[in-house]
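Support request, please re-run this one:
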Amino acid sequence: MAMKHAPADSTGTIPAGPPVEFRLLGEVEAAAGGRLVDLGHARQRRVLAVLLIEANRVVSADQILDRVWGEAPPQRARAAVHGYLCRLRRVLTEMDGVGLVRRPGGYALTADPMTVDLLKFRKLVAEAREAEEGGTALALFDRALRLWRGDLVAGHDSAWLNDVRHGVALERLAAELDRNDLVLDRGGHAGLLAELTASASAHPLDERIAGQLMLALYRCGRQAGALDVYERLRRLLAEELGAGPTRALRDLHVRILTTDPALVVREPVKAAERPVQPLIPRQLPAPPRSFTGRARQLAALGEAMRAPSGLGGTVTISGAGGLGKTWLALRWAHENADRFPDGQLHVNLRGFDPAADPLHPAVAVRSFLDALGVPPAVIPPDPEAQAAMYRHLTAGRRMLIVLDNARDSAHVAPLLPATPTCAVLVTSRRRLTGLITAHGARPLVLDVLTEAESGRLLTREFGASRTAAEPEAVAAVIRHCGGLPLALGVIAARAAVRPGLSLGVLAGELRQATTRLDALDGGELAVNLRAVLSCSYDALSSGAARVFALLGRAPGPEISLPAVASLTALTVTRTRALLRELVNAHLLDEPVPDRYRAHDLVLLYAAELSGRLDAGGAGLRRLLDHYLHTAHRADRALSPHREPLTLPPPRPGVVVADIADHRAARAWFGAEYPALLATVDDAGSDAYVCRLGWALMTFCDRRGLWHDQAATQRAALEAARRLADRPAEAHAHCGLALAYISVRRYGDAGEHLRQALRLFRALGDRAGQAHAHRCMARLFAQQGHHREALPHDEQAFDLFRTLKNRRGQAAGLNAIGWHHAHLGHHHRALAHCRQALSLYQEIADRQGEAATWDSLGFIRRRLGHLRQAVTCYARALALFRELGARYSEGLALSSLGDILHDAGDPAAAHRHWQDAFDILDQLGHHRAEEVRVKLGGARSSGPSRPVAPRGTGS
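Re-run finished. Output below.
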């Protein structure tokens, strides 16, 4: 039978219980031998609740349907009910004395009524009302009321359940009021005061509660307070119901007015009955000594604390472990302590303490009552009554309450005062959205320190002379600690205890990823980054913990939702939910929807975990499949006429992103580019490196990322050689040569192209030979040697023609026309480029069409047809922009500026040159200097000289 641990009580032990116990007064739970039983999902637990409420009575299937779903059950609901009943029967048959049996007319859950808390509550209340001795009755009422942990079947709704819940709540209230009468009869009015105040606030029209509160106040010496309760109720009854108080309450009012001696308890007043005189607590721990920066956050905290009526409200300070949330809260609290004349309360809830269990809220409430000066004898035994007393004692007071290190919203909610005059500061590693939505808390999310703040912290800790002596080491410490105050503090502490130690040694430990977390161990749990992160990790659900650990396998600074789904082999929907948990725990950030990143030190910790969780590397291989298959799909969208790769199918669980068109492809490459580069570096698989290098070629070339293109192609070349994959090696030679041409390493480019041609010839790959010849022509043309370039493009054209490769033929025609134009054969050039344009348009190759319009613009300008040249360049420019071809866009703008200048429009020319310069300068291309010269006016008079040709015209 599947079970899970029952929650520990405030002492950390699992409370003992009967062999079988069913709980309905709160969340639906079942326990066997003191351990909780797994009852399945919510709908199945609701079916069990219906049967337990009617324990030992027959419930029909139709009644179950109506009580679980109401008037609109889904299709196949009856089949679902039978499934739930079968599963529940398997669970219940292993519990002694419990059964789920089929009876005429329906089903019955057979069990001892005393094992069901609701039925036990009713039996104890009935016994209390029949008891002849007051002490016995009071004990029975207390036993009954202690069974309540929340609303009946909390978290579940249906019309029937809501009606039953309302009726049971009335039963509870009646039991509480009967108990109150007994307590008042026995002189316990002082201990009831806080509880009655809370009850009167919750039930403002209940005259019985009002009467009990009036009597308790009067007996505590607060006659005016008792009369005020009556007057407020009288006005409310008149306004809401148009009626007055009952005769019994009016009689009590008169007796209090006339100080009827019969109202006073005749027994001597005990110490426990004396009115509580709250103390002014000063519980704040010492302020942080080495607090640095955070001026903006302190100001935001002060602004958030200013409610419309003055200082008050609740603010949550959330962030990852080690960010200094507690220090920020204490710094603000000490700076503003004078604003809280009624005192400050503080508690460490130990929500993420590496050395202790979380503090139960009831224990915190009890400690607050002590701090407020409540005598132990006056404190009621019931935790809810204690919480009501705490709220009563803080009502109307100007206090600051600091709740440090909360685990979640439920950890904090019982500690919130019910008054706007108190201010509450809550710190947590989680976002505490429950406090924000249900209690109006204002969130303040803490981030890392800035580089300047980190520098000031280290200067103060190391000393100015020590910092000045080793500036490079200090810069390395700042860089590798990433603004995390805990990490900076650990390094500062290690340097302080060893003043003779060179900061360079500490920086050296941080430089190596394998030793960085070791360097951030200060020798104690509170100053050990691994221990701090492990507390956040241990608090995660098992699913979120697995996702977090696997993220240590991911390369790059960010990762997308589909990539994480592939890494984990989960559905996208399930992955998003688990990632949301990690974001709420501040282990991840979500800078834009469905993209995630983490602090470098957090990722190092995740990488350590992933080594154990994904030792076989299955998760990493799925992630590589995601990147490779999506990159291939995106490249096909950018260059649909390029010969595709033949890829093995993606592994099960891999999500291949949907790339609808070239815009989506550009967006995907732009977002994933850092991760793709990191994947090439860290893939650990030569086959992936070769294929990813191929898939990145088009994007890198169009965006002018030639240095990255060279790096990825070098990696692909080395991987192909290790694989002895000669076709991949030949293509990598070409890819590397194209990158070298763009960065003017012409000699290296020529050597790689000669090796590519040799390999393609040996392989008998005519398409590869044609491609290498086109690259060789580009090499010559880029240097202005069009006479040497022309034969290579003619050979490429002939090869493409024999292969019936129409795109290759179009590219060859455009390139041949380009060379003829530079050799002065303008009409021959025009004929070739027109043929190329027609062919490109037939096959819908927009990149080739753009390049050919660019060539035609160049030719028309050489022929003196300036108006036609402008039209050609304008069409090329529009297509280059649509395709995201930044380098080609920059050159087209420059050429268009030249023509406008020749046509006598210097202002328009200047605008185009400026746009061209901005693009080329951003790309870091040497041709930006040529455009800068034009902008500076350092050009000879007469027609402007065109920018040096791109070479291939494609």
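DSSP finds 42 helices and 16 strands in the chain. The longest helix spans residues 159-185.
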